Amino acid sequence: MEQQSRRSFIAGAAAAGLVAGAFGSIRAAHAQEYATPFGPSSQDAVNRMIKLAALKDGDVVADLGSGNGQIIIAAVKSNPKVRGWGVDLQEWLVKTATEEAAKQGVSDRAQFSQRNAFDVDLREASVINMWLFANLTRLLQPKILAEARPGTRVIVNGQLIGTENILGLWQPDQIDREGSSPIMLWIVPARVQGFWTWDLPLGGTTQTYDVIMNQAFQQAEGFARVGNRRESLTEVKLRGEDLSFVFDMTLTGVGRTKHEFSGKVNGDTIKGTVKVSMAESKPMELPWIARRVAKSGWFRPTGIDLK
Ligand SMILES: C[S@@+](CC[C@H](N)C(=O)[O-])C[C@H]1O[C@@H](n2cnc3c(N)ncnc32)[C@H](O)[C@@H]1O
């Protein structure tokens, strides 16, 4: 399968206008287990990759295996407040991309270097582009999840490699199938897995919330405890650093209370607001600050009090 995908990629790359001599200059097999030859993404794919990234001022776009530099050059030209950089194993492609950036007057915002995609620091990017063999793309998944900041958009051209498990079990947030090849988007999720706690002043007292979050990539579920009551979180949404969820809970001295939380995850803190709605009173909005803890009050003994 691997050999076959490699052969079809090479055939496709050749059909896409592969520059003669590219294969001759790829490194020896012992140096790179999975090297991908050069073939430029089609113009249609480049346009759709940039569109799906929804570039905004301040974005830093990276292309892992930047080839002739066309994606970075097109990205920085689409917005004067966007910067970009590309890395490629092949010296002649880095030179070609650098010369093209100069020709198009964007050298100050588009830089290229001869480096291995596995060696770059992905914390510097807010958008990461790739069109590599499927197995190589997949091997970059743990690096992306370990290094890229929450909210970073990952864009992959699916031409010849398809859309199936390209980043392993991490499924795309969106797939654009409108053109000649599928273009996939992933949004790096914040890490919410673990134990969280916070207080809210409700019913004339301080209510302490102990929440357990479980996470599989951008999917999350959670369980809340206040006093001796426990409820599951519903409508849990995690997109980049943005987390929101809802739950109803009967609070001591307050009664049945609906909670709608939304906030931004920043390391071991979540900051946002909670809309609290109680049976007879008007809903109110309170600030919400949660912190991650090593041990959770969730596991305190509950006892047998039925009141
Ligand atoms: C199919 S081309 C894509 C070029 C460009 N991203 C585009 O879509 O037009 C793949 C490029 O990745 C480069 N490449 C392969 N493995 C790499 C690695 N480990 N690190 C950096 N570049 C790599 C190849 O030299 C080639 O230029």
Description of the structure:
This protein has 2 domains: about 190 residues, Rossmann fold, CATH 3.40.50; about 110 residues, Lipocalin, CATH 2.40.128. It is α+β, with helices and mostly antiparallel strands and about 300 residues long. Helices cover about 20% and strands about 35% of the residues. The chain contains 6 helices and 16 strands. A 9-stranded antiparallel sheet has the order 11-10-9-8-16-15-14-13-12, with no helix packed on it. It has a 7-stranded mixed sheet with strand order 3-2-1-4-5-7-6, covered by helices on one side. Bound molecules: S-adenosylmethionine. The site of S-adenosylmethionine has 22 residues, from helix 3 and strand 2.
Distance between the termini: 63 Å
Give the name of the CATH architecture of the largest domain: 3-Layer(aba) Sandwich
Strand order of the largest sheet: 11-10-9-8-16-15-14-13-12
CATH class of the largest domain: Alpha Beta
Task: Give the total of beta strands.
Answer: 16
Q: What percent of the residues sit in helical stretches (DSSP H or I)?
A: 10-25%
Bound molecules: S-adenosylmethionine
Rg from C-alpha positions?
A: 24 Å
- Helix/sheet category: alpha+beta
Overall number of domains:
2
* Low-confidence regions: 1-25
State the CATH topology of the largest domain.
Rossmann fold
* Mean of all residue-level pLDDT scores: 90
